[in-house]
Amino acid sequence: LIDNGFFTELNKLPICSYVINKNGFEKYYITSRRPFLKEQTIDWLENHGIDFEHEKLYFVGTGSEFENIERFKRKAYLAKQLKLDCFIEDEGEVAYEIAMLEIPVILFNYPWNQHISHKNIYRVGHWNDKCSYWRETENILKKISLYHKKQ
Fold first, then answer.
1. Residue 127 has pLDDT above 80, yes or no
2. Which of 35, 58, 19, 27 is nearest to 136 (CA)?
3. Where do the domains of the chain lie?
4. Helix (H) or strand (E) holding 48
5. What is the rounded distance in angstroms from the CA atom of residue 83 to the CA atom of residue 111?
6. What pLDDT score does 128 carry?
């Protein structure tokens, strides 16, 4: 997968950075990729026009400092350490572990994560209708923002 360009040729998910920025969220990127893919990942982010700060890019895959933590709990551990207000994820088990920490999770709706549910998990879909997807994501982020402002 690495040699054939799999990671460098992935398409960007239809998550819209301006929606997140508009709601005033500080962004962290936490990936399950292995640390040796750091340069390829940075190139991919830059080539897709995604703004990020290098110190806010975390790798939790095999070979990382988080390797001793159970695989599905690595991102949850880091989300808790960073005191994140919201998490965007596509892997159901990871989303569930984060939601258990009372952190709202926006979960990409895929066939392989349909068995996962929790009161802190918000599903987004409508991949073919980007406007609908962005509205849906923005509405969820507004709810989360309002929730945190009340606390």
1. no
2. 19
3. 17-150
4. none
5. 30
6. 47
